Automatic annotation (TrEMBL):
Entry's EC annotation: 3.5.2.9
Listed GO MF terms: 5-oxoprolinase (ATP-hydrolyzing) activity; ATP binding
Phylogenetic lineage: Bacteria, Pseudomonadati, Pseudomonadota, Betaproteobacteria, Burkholderiales
Species: Melaminivora alkalimesophila
Purpose: Catalyzes the cleavage of 5-oxoproline to form L-glutamate coupled to the hydrolysis of ATP to ADP and inorganic phosphate.
Stored CDD domains: LamB_YcsF_like (cd10787)
Family: Belongs to the LamB/PxpA family.
HAMAP family associated with the record: PxpA
Keywords: ATP-binding, Hydrolase, Nucleotide-binding
Gene3D superfamilies: Glycoside hydrolase/deacetylase
Reactions this protein catalyses: 5-oxo-L-proline + ATP + 2 H2O = L-glutamate + ADP + phosphate + H(+)
Gene: pxpA
Official protein name in the record: 5-oxoprolinase subunit A
């Protein structure tokens, strides 16, 4: 199993998360590309730290929305969206090369991630952009979403992702952050929840119903309060249960 986190999201004097501490725990790092968060110098620092620890790096591409942290819905044209994704991957590839590592996968962020999970037009634009840069890149997508099959049909390798610190709806989608209880904070409960997911392929939705989730990576959001402790607890519980932790991308 892989554990990933969204990193490189600090901007100038504004600090977001503890990248160094999380990089000691996770096996994959989704690194901001400057559109929703991150500045070039900070992104480069995160990439260097990831390279030192042997953590796999992915491009955390987003809508151009610094003010909204990439969490506001947008409806760009296909021409715009494809160019935006190509631009972000390319920028991170350059910084990664300078840091002594390389971009192995792409994980869309925030509103873009949730939109393309079900919006076929925008999904195909992101898929086309990835293929235009490097068809060997893996796409990380919401487990159980239509995006997974669309990307596989287009020839991309896809990895399904589950969220340790987010509540789920009965259909396998994430509870909106606007709803109470959407973000989970109890590290022990989250870790046991993820162990059950790994062992059974199921988790309990906000309604109390059981939901089947087929995932090869677990995300702990780097900007969540207590993110480091939560990631450490998930890592410890899975390891103690004999779960091998390694990057999904080679």
């Amino acid at each position: 199993m892989d554990i990933n986190s969204d990193l490189g999201e600090s901007f100038g004097a504004w600090r977001m998360g503890d990248d160094a501490a999380l990089l000691d725990v996770v096996t994959s790092a989704n690194v901001a590309c400057g559109f929703h968060a991150g500045d070039p110098a900070g992104i480069l620092d995160t990439l260097r730290a990831a390279a030192e620890r042997g953590v796999a790096v992915g491009a955390h591409v987003a809508y151009p929305d610094l003010v909204g942290f990439g969490r506001r819905n947008m409806d760009p044209t296909s021409r715009e969206l494809q160019a935006d994704v190509i631009y972000q991957i390319g920028a991170l590839q350059g910084l990664a090369a300078a840091a002594g590592t390389r971009v192995r996968y792409v994980k869309p962020h925030g509103a873009l991630y949730n939109t393309i999970a079900h919006d076929e037009r925008q999904a195909r634009d992101v898929i086309a952009a990835i293929r235009a840069v490097d068809p060997g890149l893996t796409l990380m997508a919401l487990a159980g979403s239509p995006l997974i099959q669309w990307a596989r049909d287009a020839g991309l390798r896809v990895v399904g992702e589950a969220f340790a610190d987010r509540a789920y709806n009965d259909d396998g989608t994430l509870v909106s952050r606007r709803q109470p209880g959407a973000v989970l904070h109890d590290a022990d409960a989250v870790a046991e929840r993820m162990l059950r997911l790994v062992q059974t392929g199921r988790l309990t939705a906000a309604s109390g119903r059981e939901v089947a989730i087929e995932a090869d990576s677990i995300c702990v959001h780097g900007d969540s309060p207590g993110a480091v402790q939560m990631a450490q607890r998930v890592h410890a519980v899975l390891t103690a249960a004999g779960v091998a932790l390694r990057p999904f991308a080679d």
